[in-house]
């Protein structure tokens, strides 16, 4: 979920390259200057010869590739720990490579399965696909809601996912039972949702599309409507009470018909746009479905338990990959092993650098990857370059305390990348939005676009998820993850602030992550 706010090529470095270099390049020795933006300058700042590092990496990769070839030549005699799920036309979406700006995300060049679940019988469904990089996968989700006769009937779709043949068949079945897709809503400005919005909407040209205010792109600011099939009255912007539409494209039809047809079934509150200091913004809308008392959101809150979501279990290889304590482990596919792998995937996805891992030296990590047990190589196929696993966990259960601090048995929380890098820059505006949501909507269920798809939660629990943004010098509220797990995000916050990419944090939380963890 959180992954969408960080360029995925940067995340690839965080998950693989950064651990390899962590011991050679302590973060505390990096000067917080614009020189960091240049890899050449960054290496030049260090006290070791960058040529030695590059030589080690190149030789190690060569060894890994050579070894991979040997293993593959005898793969017929190797029984993998789990069967390989087939890649069929139904699960393929070739446009994904382009839609996600050529980023190496799960499902862009590999199989992209969809799991449908009925949340409220006959009224609400979710469709989950995978989002992630280097086997750190989480669900990315669309929500489909049946409209009442007062709202015109048919179906309302929130944050549509990639239109694979499998998903389109699922949508056709829903249309046959409940009427056509009539409204498609993009309730966010985040990449992983708007990248699939246009391709999905193009399959339902008679539907009206509704776009979140504050859309942007970088380095060229291209209007999102240029990538949509819909035009005229079928191209709309989500209304913001008391404000005109943001551009002339949307203003004409907003003035002719200011209240959406689906307003008979929904109320909504728009957050933002919260503008970044350099470029871009954060913006999201919470939708309240009145008849089911359900709140539909994108990223602002999530819920997670140790039970892996169905889309994660659909292909368990990523869980088994992370369940290993070291690259030398041979794991079996059991419920306990899956839960352990899922706990660790969640920690990587939310904090990027879990405090309990021990980082392997670069040379050792590359040598071990070249000698991995053949039955385990399948766990990283198509996701992890060279089967790298440049860290280890001291024991099977060492991560449980850290996970439980995040999970709290499924209670709502605001993801730490938002509370440490984005929302804490304008906490008063965020809390004002939270208060409006809680004052206006009497919900009993929250459906986020990531992690759990049916969180039983009310207004009090929703409000409590943002408590850390209410911290003052006299009273502080802790972040959900343990301070030692937030060390990397705290360093990132300080770095982005010094580079003037984001404004300084306006939250007085005592910042314990500066005093605890590997980067303290």
Structure at a glance:
This protein has 17 helices and 14 strands. With 520 residues, it is of the alpha/beta class.
Mass-distribution shape: globular
Uncertain segments: 1-13, 20-76
Helix proportion of residues, in percent? 25-40%
Q: How far is it from the N-terminal to the C-terminal residue, by CA?
A: 26 Å
What does the radius of gyration come to? Answer: 23 Å
The number of distinct β-strands equals 14
Provide the spatial order of strands within the biggest beta sheet. 1-2-3-4-5-6-7
Secondary-structure-based class equals alpha/beta
> Biggest sheet, in brief?
7 strands, mixed
Q: Counting H and I runs of at least 4 residues, what is the number of helices?
A: 17
Mean pLDDT: 84
DSSP strand (E) fraction?
5-15%
Question: What report would you give on this structure?
Answer:
The chain has helices at residues 8-22, 39-44, 50-73, 96-99, 165-178, 191-201, 248-256, 310-314, 317-323, 335-351, 362-370, 374-377, 400-407, 416-421, 427-440, 459-464, 487-498; strands spanning 115-120, 124-133, 136-146, 155-158, 181-186, 208-211, 235-237, 266-275, 281-289, 294-296, 358-359, 391-392, 445-447, 455-456. The protein is of the alpha/beta class and 520 residues long. It has a 7-stranded mixed β-sheet, sandwiched between helices. The two termini are 26 Å apart.
């Amino acid at each position: 979920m959180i992954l969408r706010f960080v360029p995925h090529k940067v995340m690839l470095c965080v998950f693989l390259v950064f651990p390899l270099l962590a011991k050679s390049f302590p973060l505390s020795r990096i000067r917080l200057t614009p020189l960091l933006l240049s890899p050449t300058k960054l290496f030049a700042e260090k006290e070791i010869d960058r040529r030695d590092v590059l030589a080690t990496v190149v030789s190690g990769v060569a060894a890994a590739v050579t070894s991979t070839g040997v293993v593959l030549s005898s793969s017929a005699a190797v029984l993998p720990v789990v069967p390989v799920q087939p890649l069929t036309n139904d699960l393929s979406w070739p446009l994904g490579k382009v839609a996600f700006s050529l980023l190496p995300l799960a499902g862009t060049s590999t199989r992209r399965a969809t799991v449908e679940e009925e949340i409220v019988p006959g009224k609400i469904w979710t469709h989950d696909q995978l989002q992630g990089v280097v086997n750190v996968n989480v669900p990315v989700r669309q929500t489909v809601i049946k409209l009442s006769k007062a709202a015109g009937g048919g179906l309302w779709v929130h944050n549509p996912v990639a239109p694979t043949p499998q998903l389109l068949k699922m949508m056709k079945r829903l249309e046959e039972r409940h009427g056509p897709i009539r409204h498609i809503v993009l309730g966010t400005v985040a990449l992983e949702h708007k990248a699939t919005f246009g391709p999905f909407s193009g399959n339902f040209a008679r539907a009206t599309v509704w776009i979140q205010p504050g859309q942007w792109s970088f380095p060229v600011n291209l209007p999102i409507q240029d990538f949509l099939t819909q035009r005229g009255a079928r191209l709309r912007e989500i209304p913001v009470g008391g404000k005109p539409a943001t551009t002339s494209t949307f203003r004409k039809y907003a003035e002719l018909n200011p209240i959406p047809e689906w307003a008979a079934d929904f109320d909504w509150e728009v957050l933002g746009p919260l503008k970044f200091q350099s470029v871009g913004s954060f913006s999201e809308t919470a939708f309240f479905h009145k008849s089911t008392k359900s709140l539909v959101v994108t990223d602002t809150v999530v819920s997670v338990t140790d039970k892996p979501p169905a889309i994660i279990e659909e292909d368990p290889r990523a869980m088994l990959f992370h369940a290993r304590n070291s690259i030398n482990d041979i794991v079996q596919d059991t419920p306990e092993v899956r839960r352990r792998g899922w706990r660790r995937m969640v920690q990587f996805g939310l904090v990027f650098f879990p405090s309990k891992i021990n980082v392997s030296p670069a040379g050792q990590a590359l040598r071990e990857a070249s000698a991995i047990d053949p039955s385990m190589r399948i766990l990283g196929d198509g996701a992890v370059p060279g089967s790298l696993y440049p860290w280890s966990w001291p024991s099977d259960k060492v991560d449980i305390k850290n996970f439980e601090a995040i999970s709290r048995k499924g209670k709502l929380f605001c993801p730490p990348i938002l509370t440490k890098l984005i929302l804490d820059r304008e906490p008063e505006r965020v809390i004002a939005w939270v208060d409006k949501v809680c004052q206006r909507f009497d919900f009993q269920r929250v459906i986020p676009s990531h992690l759990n798809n049916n969180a039983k939660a009310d207004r009090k629990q929703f409000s409590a998820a943002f408590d850390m943004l209410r911290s003052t010098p006299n009273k502080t509220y802790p972040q959900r993850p343990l301070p030692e797990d937030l060390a990397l995000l705290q360093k990132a916050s300080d770095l982005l602030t010094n580079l003037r990419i984001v404004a300084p944090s306006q939250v007085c939380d005592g910042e314990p992550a500066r005093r605890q963890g590997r980067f303290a």
